Amino acid sequence: MSIGDTLYAISSAGLTLAAGKTEDTLKVYPLENLTPELAAEIKEHKAALIKVMREDEEMRRTGIVQSERQVFDMAREHFGLDKSEGVS
């Protein structure tokens, strides 16, 4: 799964993703929505997810990916994902 797909899956699962402001940590909640497959994808793309989140203005302010719009904006900006084309 690409990082764009992973961002979409995080949003679709109703998860909130938070990155440490200085340390390379990610927190995901609510844990009951986190599948083992998605956890593996998040671990695989951890460094890239943190990088994207730190570059996003709203995420820098809050420390949290808060909306589907924010996920798509980040994916589109960094990976060329087009929401109108969908995610495969």
Mean pLDDT: 77
Identify the overall geometry: globular
What strand line-up does the widest sheet have? 2-1-3
Q: Note the gap between the termini.
A: 9 Å
Tally of domains: 1
Radius of gyration: 12 Å
Q: What is the number of E strands?
A: 3
The percent range for strand residues is 5-15%
Write a concise keyword list for the protein shown above.
single chain; 88 residues; mainly alpha; three-stranded antiparallel sheet; globular; disordered C terminus
Question: What would you say this structure looks like, in words?
Answer:
The relative contact order is 0.22. The chain has one domain (3-80). It has helices at 3-12, 36-44, 46-55, 57-62, 68-79; strands at residues 16-19, 26-29, 64-65. It has 88 residues and is mainly alpha-helical. It is 53% helix and 11% strand.
Concise summary:
The chain is built from five helices and three strands, in the order αββαααβα. It is mainly alpha-helical.
Annotate the secondary structure layout:
Blueprint: H1 3-12, E1 16-19, E2 26-29, H2 36-44, H3 46-55, H4 57-62, E3 64-65, H5 68-79
Antiparallel strand pairs: 1-2, 1-3
Helix pairs in contact: 1-5
